[in-house]
Design brief:
Elements (H helix, E strand, L loop, with lengths): L1 H6 L16 H12 L10 H10 L6 H10 L3 E3 L4 E3 L2 E2 L2 E2 L15
């Protein structure tokens, strides 16, 4: 589809992001692409998340990517772990008691 093709210039032969798009729509597609690499239902430590993000990027800036994923509501965060948002269809339900939790958005 058109959206997938728009991201191709930013991917190397291994499927890693070789550069981060500057335009908002393509940035969202790149963040969505990275969020799909995160195993659903698994808690990650910060170091594990850094390793995963480094695996799928050639520019290796996991701190910035984590922050962007959080800001776009593509990851949840607790005091001691990072995890993908829990999806129910295209919506997600996050327990209200988890103050630092975020919702996954649909692009």
């Amino acid at each position: 589809d058109t959206e997938s093709r728009a991201l191709v210039p930013f991917l190397d032969q291994s499927g890693r992001l070789s550069a981060f798009p500057a335009k908002n729509k393509k940035e969202l597609m790149a963040l969505w692409y990275l969020s799909q690499k995160i195993q659903a239902g698994r808690n990650y430590t910060e170091a594990e998340m850094n390793d995963l993000l480094d695996e799928y990027t050639a520019f290796h800036d996991p701190a910035t990517l984590r922050r962007r994923l959080y800001n776009k509501h593509l990851l949840n965060q607790t005091a001691d772990s990072i995890l993908p948002a829990e999806l129910f269809g295209n919506r997600c339900c996050i327990p209200a008691e988890n103050v630092l939790q975020y919702r996954k958005i649909q692009i």
